[in-house]
Design brief:
Shape: globular
Strand order of the largest sheet: 4-3-5-1-7
Number of strands: 7
Helix content: 25-40%
Distance between the termini: 24 Å
Strand content: 15-25%
Number of helices: 3
Radius of gyration: 14 Å
Largest sheet: 5 strands, mixed
Length: about 140
């Protein structure tokens, strides 16, 4: 298994209220020349968590930070205009993301949490992940 130092949160940068799947995102990434979907997990609007790229493989989700990270993407992140960043997480996505982060923190206790915006000039994941989830990483 790879050494995991970072867990990086993303949004799919898609319009609120629209459903997309791992297969959709994989197609987008393949069209951009990726070998596979760039994220390790995708959280659908209904709160279900879906596997993307295997954890044993480096992701393709954050330039310069893929080798030792896990990429998690929630579907959404833009207002209805598909351009304006917006926290569109459903309550089920919020609950699922917290559960996944607890699981990953238990498995990789030295990993730290980051939003894509911590490493790139982007709004992604369109919410303050530190405010919402740092408490998970602070627990003993």
């Amino acid at each position: 298994m790879r050494t995991i130092r970072d867990i990086i949160l993303h949004c799919s940068a898609t319009a609120e209220g629209k459903d997309f799947t791992v297969a959709d995102i994989r197609q987008w990434h393949l069209a951009r020349g990726f070998k596979d979907i760039g994220y390790h997990y995708v959280i659908y609007r209904d709160g279900s968590i879906h596997a993307g790229r295997p954890l044993s493989h480096s992701g393709a989700h954050c330039t310069g930070h893929n080798r030792h990270s896990i990429g998690i993407c929630y579907v959404g992140g833009c207002a209805a205009d598909s351009k304006t960043p917006k926290d569109t997480r459903t309550s089920k996505q919020k609950t699922a993301l917290a559960a996944l982060l607890r699981h990953l923190h238990d498995r990789f206790p030295l990993a730290t949490l980051h939003g894509h915006c911590d490493y790139a000039r982007k709004a992604c994941p369109s919410f303050d992940c530190h405010k919402d989830y740092d408490s998970i990483f602070a627990r003993k």
